[in-house]
Amino acid sequence: MKIAPIYYLTISLDFWTPKIWRKIWIRGDEKLNYVAWVLFTSMGWTGYHLSAFIIRDIFYGNISIEDPPDEWLDWTKYNLYDIAKTKLTQFKFLYDFGDSWEMTVKIRELNDLDKNAPYPVCVNGKNAAPPEDVGSYVGFEHFIKVMKDENHPEYKEISETWISDTFDSSYFSVDEVNDIIQDKKVFQEYVDEKFGF
């Protein structure tokens, strides 16, 4: 059996400065639902919200939800190689259709890596992603402003919601991401809870 190619994904949050980005190596035989989990986990998100890929104007997502859009393809039926073998260089990944986090994912095949090494692995990144349910880009900007000023009238309420009195927008840890995405048991628990399969 042919060994799956390894892909280098560069994920960056659109419409935000300074750039929030991650670089990940991942096997091409991983299903798209697993790739989605790796992407949002690398950003520090839990997967509580809907996510989807837009690849050449086609949506791939979780069709087991109530009333999925008719045009969505089932992301458990496709792996990364299925979409990348068509000379794809980038695609979109959406997370949280309320806050509308849109990411550009650049993809390229790596030919000089050990294909039997433990993938996925996060190899680099920069800056903290927005917290869950922060209120889209405007809300994130406000959140950062408030968390920098302990005298702000909303500081107490927001810091209690955030469950921390600090937020460092420049913080990112490769090790913390890898502790999660390299644990298949964590992913299986996520799948069992969210999708029941």
TrEMBL record:
Domain of life: Bacteria
Pfam families: PRiA4_ORF3
Entry keyword Cytoplasm: no
Residues of the signal peptide: none
Keyword presence, Transmembrane: yes
InterPro entries: MM3350-like_sf, Plasmid_pRiA4b_Orf3-like
Plasmid pRiA4b Orf3-like domain span: 6-175
Keywords, sorted A to Z: Membrane, Transmembrane, Transmembrane helix
Protein name: Plasmid pRiA4b Orf3-like domain-containing protein
